[in-house]
Design a protein that fits this description.
Elements lengths: L1 H18 L2 H14 L3 H19 L1 H5 L4 E2 L2 E3 L3 E4 L7 E10 L5 E10 L3 H10 L1 H6 L2 E6 L2 E6 L4 E6 L3 E6 L5 H10 L7
Antiparallel strand pairs: 1-2, 2-4, 3-4, 4-5, 5-9, 6-7, 7-8, 8-9
Helix pairs in contact: 2-3
Length: about 190
């Protein structure tokens, strides 16, 4: 009988572990800490919950960053919550490629979801004259109007009124940046 009870308990623990939701656990911990007047612990638990939510919200953006784009190989995908910067989350990946001389070229791609940054980018995309004041050159990446800042080596565009895509490659030409932009899986962001 004890053996059976032990097996049932192990099964319940395993089932509970599989169904555990870290976001829910963090929110519950924050509420308990708040109710016990432990504001610092509550704040910390809520920050953890926000970070985890940001990572979950950013997951479609991670799918948009393929392992390979042409001869460019993607590195590790990084996610970050932008809670302290006004909200949203960002997913990024660095792509590397050796040119014909053997020199390594790097391009950094960042996709921000639900970020105030999106409003700034779309403002300049809707009013190219404003972008020109910053030295931006209007470009087209598939169906998306884009803004290329040559001095900074930055190409930016918006997808689905929710994602800001920023591609940066210092000392690289606009062709390299556009190649990376066209190789992103922007359909995953729709």
């Amino acid at each position: 009988m004890n053996k059976r009870l032990c097996m049932v308990m192990i099964g319940l623990v395993a089932f509970g572990t599989m169904r555990a939701d870290e976001v829910e656990d963090s929110i519950t911990a924050a509420l308990k800490a708040y109710q016990n007047n432990r504001s610092a612990d509550a704040f910390s638990a809520l920050q953890k919950a926000m970070k985890l939510l940001g990572e979950k919200a950013g997951s479609p953006a991670a799918v948009a960053l393929p392992e390979m784009i042409g001869e460019w190989r993607g590195g590790k995908i990084e996610t970050q919550s932008l809670g302290s910067a006004g909200g949203g989350s960002t997913v990024s990946r660095t792509y590397r490629h050796a040119d014909k001389d053997g020199d390594e070229k790097k391009i950094f791609v960042s996709i921000a979801a639900d970020s105030p940054l999106l409003g700034q980018i779309t403002t300049f995309l809707k009013a190219p004259a404003l972008g020109k004041l910053l030295g931006a050159k209007p470009k087209q990446v598939g169906p998306y109007p884009a803004m290329y800042l040559g001095k900074e080596g930055i190409l930016q565009f918006a997808v689905n009124a929710r994602y800001a895509v920023i591609i940066q490659g210092r000392k690289l030409g606009e062709d390299d940046l556009i190649e990376i932009a066209r190789g992103l899986n922007t359909e995953a962001l729709k």
